[in-house]
Every structure is written in structure tokens, then in C-alpha cells.
Design goal:
By secondary structure, the protein is α/β, with parallel strands linked by helices. The protein has three domains: 74 residues, Arc Repressor Mutant, subunit A; 109 residues, Periplasmic binding protein-like II (D-Maltodextrin-Binding Protein, domain 2), CATH 3.40.190.10; 104 residues, 3-Layer(aba) Sandwich (D-Maltodextrin-Binding Protein, domain 2), CATH 3.40.190. The protein has eleven helices and twelve strands. The radius of gyration is 24 Å and the shape is globular. The N terminus and C terminus are likely disordered.
């Protein structure tokens, strides 16, 4: 038996948990039954039994298939977590002698996932073949929420101080860059003052995005105001709009230096004031850190230093040999 928080072991069994999760993921009892290698009536019966035990309706039929009710969404989230914990426990209690095993969920910022995902997976699978990775990508607020709720084990965040707890370890600082269409900024050896940025239409991340907070704070300190022509929480969309000449923007250097080096964008670090974000490695605030999580955390920090901090510094040195303000 496995328990969903708030229910006793007698209330629910693993078959019901798997059924309720799979119907949510496939939006179909028929597809869920196929994935679970069951007949459709068996899945329907498991769902109905669980609904009767809880006294709520978990699913509603719609034109797009089976959709969860408000109560169903809560149960599915808890059931998914319970199944993940059971799978992790199974991996830990049946280890190969001398090997680190387990399932580790890693949260990556959208702005660094493109640089980190491949080398991280390659390094972990090579050094720790008994570890299975799950990668989640999102904004810093999402990643922190996933850590707090136990969805993620370890994550790369920014602007979270070490005073937040012993589970937070600073890695380094990364500057924000002003970027524009190709050839719009013709002097890559000179940093871009914030007052220069606000002279142009600006594509901004939407509040309460962490980058937007940093930019707004810098504008307040400099006594200037930005009125964005468009707001988006997609770095990919930001770069597309900037490259097409619809506005300038501000992005972390890891997300733009390759585009600038390849001529897809132009730009330089912000100055007057310079704006930095502090990158930290954080883990779920649990009293026990499994060996697999510790191993992946160390490898993640190694890859961040190599590909995001040291790697970008080398690229910036080649791209901007002498960076100076006006």
C-alpha cells in the first residue's frame, strides 16, 4: 500500500494511484488502460472506487477528453508525488554493490538549460550509471516552488541568498546584457548605459519574472523608466523580437553571447548601473540528502562553473576584448 497525504493506507492502493495519474496524463480512460496494460473497465472501476472512498468527483468528460476537477487536480498531484517517492525508495534499497543509485529530479533555469542539459546528462550517465535523471526547466520562481514541494531535488536558481538556509550554496555572479538587432550596437568594446537602453523600444520579461525585478530596481536607482512595447516570459520569443528589430531587451549573458558572436544579435553588458544576478545551487530542504542527489548536485555545480561562468567568460573575452563604459 502507498498513501496519498491525507488518506490512510486502507483508503487507496497502488493500482488506484497509477490509474488516477495515467488518466490525467492521457486525458482518456482508453489510452490510460493501454499504457497500464489493463482493460478499460478495470481502470474505470479503480477511478470510481477511489471517488467513492474520497466522496468527490475526480474527472469530468469534455470535448477534449477526461479533465480533472478541482479535487481531482489535488489528488493527482499527491498521487504522482507518492508514486515518485516509492520509485525512488525502490531504487535506493536495491542498489548495485558499490554503486550510487536513485532517481534525481533537477531544475534548470530556462536561460541555462541549453548550455547545461547535454553535458550534465553526459557526465552523470558516464560517472553514475545507476542514477536516472529527470530534468525540469522553468523560471526561478517555479524552480523554488518545486524544491519547496519536493517535486525537484536540486536546482539552479538566482538571487537567493545563502541566508535562505543551509541547502543554498552560492556559485557565482552573472551580468545582464542589453541586446539589440544585428548591427544596432556597433561598438561591442563599449558597455551599454541603462539610459541608452531606455531610448529605444524595449521587449521585457513580464512581472514578476526575476529578471524584470532586477531591471526595474536598476531603473529606479538610475532615475529612468522603461515602458515596454511588449512583455513575454519566453527568452526565445524575446530574442526573436529583438533580432527582427522590434525592440531592445535585457537578458543574462549566457543566453546571448553565442547569438552576438554569430551575428544574430548585437549588444554588450549593461552599465550605469551594471546589473548582475547571483547564481546559486539549491536542494530540497530535506533533513536527509540521498547519495544520488549529492552526487548530481556536485556534478551540476561543476557544469555550471565550466559552461556558464568560466565558459562564458572565455567567450566574452574573445568577443569583447576591452569592455568599458561611456
Amino acid at each position: 500500500m502507498a498513501c496519498v497525504p491525507g488518506m490512510t493506507g486502507a483508503d487507496v492502493d497502488l493500482r488506484q494511484l497509477r490509474a488516477v495519474v495515467m488518466v490525467a496524463e492521457t486525458a482518456s480512460v482508453t489510452r490510460a488502460a493501454a499504457v497500464l496494460h489493463l482493460v478499460q473497465p478495470a481502470v474505470t472501476r479503480q477511478i470510481r472506487t477511489l471517488e467513492q472512498e474520497l466522496g468527490v468527483t475526480l474527472y469530468e468528460r469534455s470535448k477534449t477528453g477526461m479533465t480533472t476537477t478541482e479535487a481531482g487536480t489535488i489528488v493527482v498531484e499527491r498521487a504522482r508525488r507518492a508514486l515518485a517517492e516509492l520509485e525512488r525508495a525502490r531504487a535506493e534499497i536495491h542498489p548495485v554493490a558499490g554503486a550510487i543509485r536513485g532517481i534525481v529530479t533537477v531544475g534548470l533555469l530556462d536561460s541555462v538549460s541549453g548550455e547545461i542539459a547535454e553535458p550534465l546528462v553526459a557526465a552523470v550517465t558516464s560517472r553514475y550509471p545507476g542514477i536516472r535523471l529527470r530534468l525540469l526547466s522553468g523560471y526561478s520562481g517555479h524552480l523554488k516552488e518545486w524544491l519547496d514541494t519536493g517535486v525537484a531535488d536540486v536546482a539552479v536558481l538566482y538571487n537567493l541568498t545563502s541566508s535562505a538556509g543551509p541547502h543554498v550554496r552560492p556559485i557565482g555572479d552573472e551580468s545582464l546584457w542589453a541586446v539589440a538587432a544585428p548591427n544596432a550596437w556597433r561598438d561591442p568594446e563599449r558597455n551599454i548605459p541603462l539610459r541608452e537602453l531606455v531610448r529605444h523600444p524595449v521587449v521585457m520579461p513580464a512581472a514578476p519574472h526575476g529578471l524584470r525585478t532586477l531591471i526595474d530596481e536598476a531603473c529606479a536607482a538610475a532615475g529612468v523608466e522603461i515602458t515596454p512595447v511588449v512583455e513575454t516570459n519566453s527568452m526565445h520569443v524575446q530574442k526573436l523580437l529583438v533580432a527582427s528589430g522590434l525592440g531592445w531587451s535585457v537578458l543574462p549573458r549566457i543566453g546571448v553571447v553565442n547569438d552576438i558572436a554569430n551575428g544574430r544579435l548585437s549588444g554588450a553588458p549593461l552599465c550605469d548601473p551594471a546589473v548582475d544576478r547571483s547564481i546559486v545551487l539549491a536542494r530540497s530542504p530535506s533533513s536527509r540528502v540521498p547519495p544520488a542527489v549529492e552526487a548530481v548536485g556536485q556534478e551540476l555545480e561543476r557544469q555550471i562553473r565550466r559552461h556558464v561562468l568560466d565558459g562564458v567568460r572565455g567567450l566574452v573575452a574573445d568577443l569583447v576584448p576591452v569592455a568599458r563604459s561611456r
